[in-house]
Amino acid sequence: MMKEKFKKLGILFVAVAVVITVVLSFQKTKQEEKKETTLQIPAIFKTKPTATYSIKAVVGETSAVNKIVTDPIYNQMTITSVDSKNTAICQIVSYLVGNKRYVLVVPTGKGTTTIRVTGKYNKKTYGYDIKTQVTNPNNVKVGVDLSSYQGKIEADVLKKAGTNFAIVRAGHGYSTEKNFSHFIKECQKDKIDLGLYWYLSSKDNKTLITDQEVLDQANAFVKLLKENKLTSESLQYPIYLDLESDTLYGNVPEVIKIAYVESLAREFFDVLAKAGYKNVGIYANKSYYETYLSNAYFASIKHKWYARYGYVGTKPTITLNNQTFTPDMWQIGDNFKIQGISKERIDLNYYYLK
């Protein structure tokens, strides 16, 4: 009996020893991991609150801050704010991809300014000032697209911010843009070049769009243009058809989806052409272009407005009908600030002259 007790106690002691060894080993491993992942603080932060970098940039080409800032702290810190001292020269915008935030430098006008990225690492705040010298050797135009989402923005504010053009939404589905006339008059008054777009969608914005609904919207668009005395000659930029509504695709079988959307676009553009508006284009993001707008008809349309957020570089391309195209207009993003406008965020575009 005693032997059995001692035997059990021996087993218990061995088990406890194993547990203690495992715990100590785990703690040691965690301490080593912590030691390995804690970065050495750069010398610059021991004397100043910010580190400074200098770059040269050109309008029409974006840059990633994590390729500019070489300090390893930057890639580990949690970004808390981004800012530009002069958005007429350079914008800065951040994107969340998964749980990682990326920051892009977006040049908008000639000159020199400073952009700042601030973040936290190990409960301390770090700042990075990037002195940015911007040129525009290729005469790339910078513009915005406007709708009621931005409220009644005054064009003189856009002009002072270096805006070259505005693409104004004329309508969406069966609704015309409530601020359309205001935007048109403002842009004409301050000599901001104009283009237009229409968001094509079914009447209830749920069910598959019909041919009649397409014709109704195209005719409503023409009526709006006539009411505002807008001729084809008075528009410096194309009229774009926004083809991102899911009501254009709905339950159409996959094998005929592209052909179906083509028929809708043709109907819409035919109405415009008969009214004298032939300078047209299409708008979509990468997924819609390459999934639904990839046939010979859409490839043949001269003006392509391409929404590609977070892209680093210049002139992003798309592949349609086994051909590679560089769209003439690139919508960079939808979260930009304009100097003089406190609340509204705005979409920003580059237009590449042929």
UniProtKB/TrEMBL annotation:
GO biological process: carbohydrate catabolic process; cell wall macromolecule catabolic process; peptidoglycan catabolic process
UniProt-listed Pfam families: Glyco_hydro_25
Matches recorded under InterPro entries: GH, Glyco_hydro_25
Coiled-coil segments: none
GO molecular function, one term: lysozyme activity
Record-stated family: Belongs to the glycosyl hydrolase 25 family.
Protein name, as recorded: Lyzozyme M1 (1,4-beta-N-acetylmuramidase), GH25 family
Organism: Sharpea azabuensis
